[in-house]
Amino acid sequence: MATFLYRLGRFAFRRRHFTALFWVALLALAGVGAAGAPAAGNTSFSIPGTEAQKAFDVLEERFPGTSADGATARVVFKAPAGEKMTDAGNKVTVEKTVKELSGDSQVAFVADPYQGGGLSQDGAVAYASVSYKVSGMELEDSSRDSLEAAAEDARDAGLTVEIGGDALQAVPATGTAEIIGIGVAAVVLVITFGSLLAAGLPLLTAIIGVGIGVATITALASTLELGSTTSILATMIGLAVGIDYALFIVSRYRTELAEGREREDAAGRAVGTAGSAVVFAGLTVVIALVGLSVVNIPMLTKMGIAAAGTVAIAVLIALTMVPALLGYAGGKVRPAGEKSKLLGGGRAKKTGTETATETGTAQRPNMGTRWASFVVRRPVAVLLLGVVGLGAAAVPAGSLELGLPDDGSQPTSTTQRRAYDLLSEGFGPGFNGPLVVVVDAKNSDDPQAVFQQTGDEIKGLDGIVTVAPAQPNEAGDTATITVIPDSKPSSVATEDLVHDIRDTGADIKADVGADILVTGATAVNIDVSQKLNDALLPYLTLVVGLAFLLLIVVFRSILVPLKAALGFLLSVMAALGAVVAVFQWGWLAGLMGVEETGPVMSMMPIFMVGVVFGLAMDYEVFLVTRMREAFVHGENPSQAVVTGFRYSARVVTAAAVIMMAVFSGFIGSSEAMVKMIGFGLAVAVLFDAFVVRMAIVPAVLALLGKKAWWLPKWLDRVLPNVDVEGEGLRTQDDRKGEDRELVHA
């Protein structure tokens, strides 16, 4: 591995024109494809194997033309103080609005509030339901404009009008998220390298890699039905790993220059050593992201694969374009320990393993060396403090409640949230999450009797406000019954009601053979949460198991990969605890822009497990590879820990700060899911990089000593030697030295 990558790095350095042109051409090609691609099509949220999805399928078959998965809107009207919606003037305004909405070609039908029971008991609030023929992502801008224009006309007539539902679903806005993340990354890179040019290389390559990845996603969005969140996730992860991977290779290149190597050789060795770590770190991230497919939720699978593709591009660019750009930079990228003249360069020179000033006074060891020496001296205290601290942070995770965001989690500044609140005020909290019971009585002798029996038995359950009469299809063999709970959609009480209705349906099926299925947005959320919970353990086993085997190959050890996996579990549980504290309990909610607390997004635990595991292994590979390299070359275990920190701690710290900055920028997103993901990943990197990898890992390695690097002899013979430490490169150098000595002799 190291020898191959060494040759690749030297090739890219020498053939820099070809290498740079290749990536720029690929970026241009992806950009042209994105510019000419049609708008993203149907991105319906299907969940195969769940009852809610089965019900949707039945509706599509038995109620053709109703567009069960089409976009919906609720135009909510509120009368001025002292008036009612039944007043003549207000009624005329509503009827005019309904007529205006019906004129849109994409509208399937509009339910008049005065004919469809859309009037509150006190007469103050009314709503018109609008059903579209296409999904929210397929709605044309003209249809959205017509919807908003109709509402504005009603406002001009004196009514309070708000619009709920997914018809106004917009591409999530991240504001200046990427700019903030890149800005902080630039500052950290300049501080780390002491050079504007060296700092600019990781930024440039990361932006190119993300550009290729996101442009490709945009070009394929319509064909593969990719949602807007997919590109946001790819941007988030692609920027973070792209900067980090390039950072490690540039840092190793500067170290090789400081040891007196020629620039081409230094580039080759940087790619051969740090590049090997990049490859395996990237593989762990790809495994974690692609592994999301085991959940069998198409949207999550597509998000994972798209993000994994962006990570793969980041790895390839780090291995090829970074050395090519180093070739262009020439002497402007200085050896480690030297700064550019603009930043006060020329005041430090490398002398062996220490740094000396021009006056010859030796400087103290760097912060990484001092910290590692401290941990090696007091490993038990550091280990206990780290574990207890993460355990305390993980405590809120015990109260984790899962759900999917609805309009109730939107900011109060949005019309969707104001419509949600008006409906709750006029009709009760459960009205925002109606349950749709699908009664499939095709195999029954008397379908009408089954419809009546189902409605009567549901009415006898607790927690229900209204059970609407059954609405049969034209064939008369299937009907829908709308149930309004007395609790809000995301509550435990509503979840219990869904289970009660399904239990009742099971009893009816046993009696008369009819299928009773519960669907609707609330039921979908419940089914998704359950599906994700059921998939978490198999997913964790698959991802951690594969990565564990990969790390055994990398480190040629059993205990080091085991320690890495256990440390990851600590950090991800602590990060989940922080997410619960902020988004569910409301701690620091104002600071994070969380206006409405509630259940944590259903996919958050499994998503964090996947992404955080991949990112955690990045730091494990980069940091511990240096320790392994020192140990293999003769240092004792404690010295190897200190050596690993001497060369890697500063760069790993910079990489973690950059990744946290990139993720934190997305906390400003208007989309609740993006906000939560950004916060969760930023906190997870904080815990994993600075507590687990910087404290717990050296403490455990110090306690284990040589046992940390133990590998059974039979396994050592079976495992392939990937040579992450670059031992093959040292052997090659030794042979060159021997050849030179023979020539001189």
Can you tell me about this structure?
This protein is α+β, with helices and mostly antiparallel strands. Helices cover about 65% and strands about 10% of the residues. It contains 23 helices and 13 strands. Strands 8, 9, 10, 11 and 12 form a five-stranded antiparallel beta sheet that branches. Strands 2-3-1-4 form a four-stranded antiparallel beta sheet, sandwiched between helices. The longest helix has about 35 residues, at about 520-555. Residues about 345-360 and about 735-745 have low confidence and may be disordered.
What's the N-to-C terminus distance?
34 Å
Helix content: 55-70%
Shape: elongated
User: Approximately what portion of the residues adopt beta-strand conformation?
Assistant: 5-15%
Look at the structure and give the mean pLDDT. 83
Tell me the radius of gyration: 30 Å
Low-confidence stretches: 346-362, 734-745
- Helix/sheet category: alpha+beta
Give me the count of strands: 13
**Total count of helical runs of at least 4 residues:** 23
User: What characterizes the major β-sheet?
Assistant: 5 strands, antiparallel
Quaternary state reads single chain
Tags for this entry?
23 helices; five-stranded antiparallel β-sheet; about 750 residues; single chain; four-stranded antiparallel β-sheet; 13 strands; disordered C terminus
Short description:
The chain is α+β, with helices and mostly antiparallel strands.
Task: Give the topology.
Elements: H1 2-14, H2 16-36, H3 51-62, E1 72-78, H4 88-102, E2 107-111, E3 125-132, H5 141-156, E4 160-165, H6 177-193, H7 196-224, H8 228-258, H9 263-290, H10 298-329, E5 348-351, E6 354-357, H11 367-377, H12 379-394, E7 402-403, H13 415-427, E8 435-440, H14 447-459, E9 464-467, E10 471-472, E11 478-485, H15 492-512, E12 515-519, H16 521-555, H17 559-584, H18 589-592, E13 600-601, H19 604-632, H20 637-665, H21 672-704, H22 713-718, H23 727-744
Parallel strand pairs: 7-13
Antiparallel strand pairs: 1-3, 1-4, 2-3, 5-6, 8-11, 8-12, 9-11, 10-11
Helix pairs in contact: 1-2, 1-9, 1-10, 2-7, 2-10, 4-5, 6-7, 6-8, 6-20, 7-8, 7-10, 8-9, 8-10, 8-20, 9-10, 9-16, 9-19, 11-20, 12-17, 12-21, 14-15, 16-17, 16-19, 17-19, 17-21, 19-20, 19-21, 20-21
